[in-house]
Amino acid sequence: MGRRAPGRRPFRGPVRGVSPRRPLTVGVGARPGVAEAEVRELVLRTLAEAGQPPSAVAALATTAARAGEPGLTAVAAGLGVPLLAFAATRLASVQVPSPSARVRAATGTPSVAEAAALLAAGPDGELLVRKRKSTPSPGALASATCAVAAARP
């Protein structure tokens, strides 16, 4: 006892620079009537871009005006996570890297996806993936955006 194998150092805690996987929050902005498949594809593609599995998601978040959208509620249910809803005034109070005047005119906040992801991540939330747009069918406008955040370690 008390001896260690040659060449092995005793455990002194976590390795610096390596942190345990943090729960992720995915903010989603959407047009009314957005299809579940379009939201799901966007969320999974964005998570893959971040190198994160769907199992790392703790919550989806959106604006209160879209909290009842079947496409959003179905994706949250499929991931087994809650769909959190924030008032547009609360979303508008969050500084984001990709604000949109068009989104502000339509929703009352310059950001839904990034702001919702950050709010859901908590007061020390960190944006891991900036806003991404869905891939619509040819000739159509993107119907969804998403961003990924996590609490700072």
UniProtKB/TrEMBL annotation:
PANTHER family: COBALT-PRECORRIN-5A HYDROLASE. Residues 1-24 are annotated as: Disordered. It comes from the Bacteria. Residues 12-23 have a biased composition (Low complexity). InterPro entries: CbiG_hydrolase, CobE/GbiG_C, CobE/GbiG_C_sf. Pfam families: CbiG_C. This is Cobalamin biosynthesis protein. It comes from Streptomyces palmae. GO terms for biological process: cobalamin biosynthetic process. Residues 24-149 form the CobE/GbiG C-terminal domain. Residues 1-11 have a biased composition (Basic residues).
